[in-house]
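Dear colleague,

Following up on Tuesday's group meeting, I ran the structure prediction for the two-component complex that the binding team flagged. I've pasted the input sequences exactly as they went in, so you can double-check that nothing got truncated or mislabelled along the way. The structure tokens for the whole assembly follow below. Feel free to forward this to whoever is handling the docking comparison.

Inputs:
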Amino acid sequence: MKKLINAPDAVLAESLDGLAAAHADILTLGDERKFVRRRHLITGKPALISGGGAGHEPLHAGFVGSGMLDAACPGQVFTSPTPDQMIAAASAVDTGGGVLFIVKNYEGDVMNFAMAAEMTDSRNLTVIVDDDVAVEKSTFSTGRRGVAGTLIVEKVVGAAAEAGMALDALKALGERVNAGTRSMGVALTSCTVPAAGKPTFTLGEDEMEMGVGIHGEPGRRRVKLAPADQIAEEIVGAIAGDLKQTGDCILLVNGFGGTPSIELYLMFNAARKQLEKHGLRVGRALVGNYVTSLEMAGCSITVSMLDDEIAKFWDTPVHTAALNWGQRS
Amino acid sequence: MKKLINAPDAVLAESLDGLAAAHADILTLGDERKFVRRRHLITGKPALISGGGAGHEPLHAGFVGSGMLDAACPGQVFTSPTPDQMIAAASAVDTGGGVLFIVKNYEGDVMNFAMAAEMTDSRNLTVIVDDDVAVEKSTFSTGRRGVAGTLIVEKVVGAAAEAGMALDALKALGERVNAGTRSMGVALTSCTVPAAGKPTFTLGEDEMEMGVGIHGEPGRRRVKLAPADQIAEEIVGAIAGDLKQTGDCILLVNGFGGTPSIELYLMFNAARKQLEKHGLRVGRALVGNYVTSLEMAGCSITVSMLDDEIAKFWDTPVHTAALNWGQRS
């Protein structure tokens, strides 16, 4: 295992300390590093709290800040956070507007967030994200997995909360965004969880896992490595076939951590051409490592339908460690 | 070779097409993809032009836009751009204020930019960046290599140009930033140039290359993999020993492409603690994949001295594909 770490069991804590030191203007750590919270809260605004296993950085802690999340609860690598983390986070960031939990659809996350939702004193609602069209159920999920579309839900709902939308409406908006969002990924290599010390799965030198999950869960099939255009055709075909909509969309090409930018933009180019064949036009674009699987090589493609309201909230300024833009032209 | 590509000789062109499509509000491609240029030029502002071999994305094309570069000339992967590219770029973006070329110190780049500087009709000056303290000369360089510090020169000088600074003063500022900037990197794995089809170098399962160059050039020594704290101690020690300054600095922990965010923030945490021992305080921070070597695993640490003027220009809003922030709090 070749990693820039000191000890497997210290990776998350030391990385969180680095995050907090690098972005002290934006965020701060909760006691015992139970959560990462926005430094400057807005009184009365519903608080958005997400979380999940580490190893998907910058999701979620990198999205804490103005216009997005109020807190993120990191579990150990690929391990759900525990309910006490979400309860502590809610207590720290609920300023009277209640709490919206945004949860990726994995059994551990769903269960632990549900327990927190029952036990917290905060009025709260939950949005479940399940955008992965690759498989109908998976190793850690009943129903579809929540993957890179989570970023889009967090951005849009985060902007709406900042603009004054109330808790019930935020939940409805989040569910509407999720309903219009589909993703699918492909892995060229595995990743290695520090505590495990060996790759989560193995792929032959000429193989790829089509439809892989963000914890290395199996996808649809293991096939020979194919050209980028062919990969894009299959993924976009799966997404468009399931989405059954046409019009303007956000196209997110998301790197899993080990694939360089030059390939991600090449995949973006391949994906946008495929989208046109399905009557989908790229209205907004995002390319980079946002919902990763440690150092896994590969990427996912996410398509999220746009309307005027969603476009407005997507374009709103955001100031977090990982997603950062001012007033867009 | 496992890459998301169609054909090795089409990688750069298809990736540039993706970049241009994803960021059409910011940038546009020159004829024959000779350069990437800022879409909206400012009349009379000195134009900043950089460039170099591809494979280091987002450097340089990802830094084209408001507050940073006016154009970037990409060569093939790890190959210098040719003089006609810089001449065409200068012709496209010089709006009367002259041109400042920002060049990483590699023989091919320096020679080709010098030829362009002679042949272009634009009044022009050049800043050479040579921030890498690892070795005094290298495979492709006479004198020190230019690496991740280039980003800092481009950001600071870009902001100064936007604020109205004239060409001569911009060159002086760029040289002042370079003089206060030091970097050094470490590789845990090699990368594979698409046209070569095999790794640039090989490392044992327990080895790392301390002081590696961004094209995989040899560093100071090949050693056993060490804990992050020990790596940070050696790199920061080399930087501080050469820099011989104390005070506030920018700390950039730059991923080479294959190392995940969780490790980069851990390295940031390790590096900032080491800096304190040398009387260097982190006044500004940047962590991410900015000056990469395709999918190489590893990172570099860059320290750049701050003063009021440099801090002001660092903080100025920037709107590019890869570096993007509004008014900072």
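The helical segments of chain A are 11-22, 83-93, 107-119, 149-162, 167-179, 228-243, 261-277, 308-315.

Cheers,
M.
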